Amino acid sequence: THFSAHDKAHKTDNPKLPSVAEQLTMSSENLMRTIPTNPTWSIKKNSKGKNMFWFGYKLHLAVSTTTQYIVGSLLSAAFVSDSSVAIPLLRQVTAIGSKPSYMMMDKGYDVTAIYHAGHQLKIEPIIDFNRRREITSGEVNEHFHPTCFLEYPYKYDSVDKRYQALKFTSPQDKCQTCPLRDEGMCQKVIKIKQTTNLRKYAVPARGTHAWEKLYNLRSAVERVNGYLKNNYQLSNVRFNGGKATATHVSLIQLTYNAVKFAVERLTKKQLLNV
Fold this sequence. Notes:
It is a single chain. The protein is an alpha+beta fold. It has helices at residues 20-23, 28-33, 83-95, 112-120, 172-175, 209-216, 219-231, 242-273, and strands at residues 2-4, 40-45, 51-63, 70-77, 102-105, 124-127, 155-160, 165-169, 189-193. The strands form 3 sheets. Strands 1, 2, 3 and 4 form a 4-stranded antiparallel beta sheet that branches. The chain has a 3-stranded antiparallel beta sheet with strand order 7-8-9, with no helix packed on it. It has a two-stranded parallel ribbon with strand order 5-6. The chain starts with a strand and ends with a helix.
């Protein structure tokens, strides 16, 4: 989420950051040194599709979707893209001993290197697909499920963990009336290794109810963003400079987690007394 700086707005020279692919080969310490924390200008589209300018920072949060605790965070200059901070943030989360099964991210993080980083940390990426003018061939549907000769999509069945391959079965409801049913031309089962294309092939497969259910959990971070801005003074930073702002933001997050923990303990105690 973004927030404005207390500093007087001025023109800044934005340094070039290492690409996301380069970050895979960098140590966490060196990677952290490349992230600028001074306030800068940036631009983004708001919910109405209009350009919005601000001078300040971005706060990148990793939030537990089950508890809504903040489990990782990084402060950066406003011009830094979301994808540029994903890998150090993931490493930060796992460094504290957290072992998430999935990571849910919007299409701004749809970069091949981020998928590789997730698999290196044994976290399954559930990331909205950014098509980037990519053309889908007739051999797959819009969710990259294989299709039959008549272009009906196969249905995702399961994953073969031995080979990390997604298993798709023929669309039986369409096969019953298919003119090619008795020609012996169609495969009943198709398996595709996930490593064929990590962006396209997730577990569970894109386009399934299970994938959508996981991706919808991403709304947890939006709620936490709202809490921090509306109730914890994130949108009202009163300090100049990146170091003071970073301390301010850290205290906000500590307070949020502490209050949440205290409320849960008090609620549990009240329930036991009842």
